[in-house]
Amino acid sequence: MDNLAGWIAPIATTVAACMTAANLGTRVTGWGFVVFTVGSLAWMGYGLTTDQPNLVWQNLALTAINAAGIWRWLGRQARIDDGARIATERSEAEAGPVLFPSSMMQTAPVEARDGETIGTAVDAMVDSADGRVAYLVVATGGIAGLGESLRILPWALTRVGEDKIIARIAAAQVGRLRAVGPNDWPTGIDVRRS
Question: What is the pTM of this model?
Answer without folding.
Answer: 0.71
